Amino acid sequence: MGLLSLGTPLPWEEARKHADHVRKHGIIQFLNIWNRIKTRRKDHLLWGDEIEYVVVHYDEENKQPRVSLRAHDVLEKLQALEMDAIAKGEVFESSWKPEYGRYMLEGTPGLPYGYTLEDTLAVEESMRRRRELATSLLPPNEAVLTMTNFPLLGSCGFTEPSATATPDSGPSMSLFIPSEAINPHARFPTLTANIRERRGSKVSINMPIFKDKNTPSPWKEPAPSCLARSSTKSLSTAVAAGCSNGEVKATEQAAKSLDQEHLPSLPDLVPDALPDHIYMDAMCFGMGCCCLQVTFQACSVEEARLLYDQLAVVTPIMMALSAGAPIFRGYLADVDCRWNVISGSVDDRTVEERGLKPLDHSRFRIQKSRYDSISNYLSPGPNYSGGCSLSPDLAKIPVEQLSSIPSKGMEFYKDQYNDLNCPYDPKIYEQLREGGVDDLLAKHYAHLFIRDPLVVFKELLDQNDELSSDHFENIQSTNWQTMRFKPPPPSAPHIGWRVEFRSMEIQLTDTENAAFAVFVVLLVRAILSFDLNLYIPLSKVDENMQRAHSRDAVHREKFWFRRQVVGDPQRKLSELGCKCKGSTNQTVAQAIHGEGYVNGVANRDDPDAFDEMTLDEIMNGKPSTNFLGLVNLVRRYLKTHSEAIKEETRAKLDTYVDIVSRKASGDLQTGATWLRNFVTSHPEYKQDSVVSKKIAYDLCKAVEGLAGKKVKGLNC
Ligand code: GLU
Ligand code: MG
Fold this sequence. Notes:
The chain is an alpha+beta fold and 716 residues long. The protein has a domain at 553-714. Helices cover 36% and strands 10% of the residues. The protein has 25 helices and 17 strands. The strands form five sheets. Strands 1, 2, 3, 4, 5, 6, 9, 14 and 15 form a nine-stranded mixed beta sheet that branches. Strands 7-8 form a two-stranded antiparallel ribbon. A two-stranded antiparallel sheet has the order 10-11. The chain binds glutamic acid and magnesium ion. Magnesium ion (MG) is lined by residues 1, 50, 52, 99, 106.
């Protein structure tokens, strides 16, 4: 979830005093990197995936699953294996990082995957090996699951060993999450406490309940029985302290009634808890979820910026297709995705920043949480490096003169797409402009830098800004957006400019995780090869992000998407460097639409037009408007490159593309639908939205059983 630093973390009241220092030096650190490598070119599109896991413990006697807090010890063992290999000068097959939950693991391949299509196929085996390795370190009654959210997270007794929530103390002061569930590394409890303190209250998350036949309406969740065990005093203080709208209506009386037979409902007890919603009050509910991220190294800064923009449009689409989170705190939700939960779980904005009070102490009115969709397109930007082309003509041009030549894809960007009007820090903007950064990139960072650093380590306040990027990363990596534009760390001269695709939910099986990762990789190739233009206004991307949460979005939603995505349909494939046979005079449009294509671009009057389409149409095409769909573009890309790859490679890649295509058509279920159906068809389910311990136990066992398999309706 970000880089870890070590030292003594400052409590919020201290940390806040250093915010300007961290911001100022963070930008100096960025400028040092920028000026050193803005003209750098890399040839290779290396990439890597990150998988987050939940470690589950089964209480076989009571048929109850719990999250295993011992995952943290497993992580230490995995890291020790990695360190041993490094000490011997070897590369370990995988790399392991801590995540927010003490019950979580995060694994990546030991080295990035190579740039050839053959290299791409290494991903599934790497994922399988990671799961196997982590599993080999667990006792027999524990398992590593790739499940977006543990279904009972935050319900009574959900940890092993057992731990109790402390609503009047600890980093999150949660009614439901004990401090022991949080990774003990100083960064995580400090982040938790400082978010709460900066905000001025606990975080407050309400996700709509799924109303089934026997779910009361309005639904008011009965206060969980374990709350009654919190002492009345601590509970009422906690409820009062935790209330995020400042209006304290909880009373000793309400808290006392917890002792009685009829527990009050959560909405009656906690002002933030809304009827008809599942209420959550801690960072763990979001950051304790698991996702699949993919990071690419672009060949130049221009290409990284181009991919950042083009992929940003695709983030809600891929989130909806990868949906995997229909259950929160033991209840079926009326959403299928985690994103809004995480967004709320780290929302450190003050009441003034949220627009609930006029600005007095805070500097900006801020529309979004730190965990949210992107707020600015970057555009490929001025030409600093001559792009990736190694053409001798460009190589002759001195670097200072390159900026007069537009960089590839720059013509697609229009200011009207950046329609969110997000705030940015004018001082930071000036600092960046004076340092030689162009307007859009300066605005991007001046926007990210409206945030305060949340975790400040006393020992790391003064740094050598030439050698360190710690202050920069402090702010950059606590802006958890759908895409991340990543400069390399100063200590890693071999790394180039990267972008991270961050919206996807983790899949239940390795095959699906591989399919989603490979699809995004191939889409990147198609975007670059065919000069795709996916731009739509960011306000529409944001609407898509909300729609992507919908239960069964594949069948029930439409999304904004551009009708005409081929940037220059008449461009010759050979100009794009395509070496495929007979391509010299073949245009991109012909390659994409087929030989018979003349000039039938959809909506020639307004090439910028966008439309509402189903996921099936966006992915598999909409013949009535000549829209080919992203899957078919990827297939065309594979076709134009098939001579260069072995037949088996092509066949395997096709299988992955087919999985994503069939998820979009509804032929294969999303993980969320599979999980939801498992619950609703369980004999113990009472059509009341409740996911009982036994149902959750059977569900986790079933999910464990899927991992390495071909599962009809899910991945084949
Ligand atoms: N676990 C978070 C998620 O589900 C991601 C944290 C990270 O940035 O690694 O999106
Ligand atoms: Mg992570």
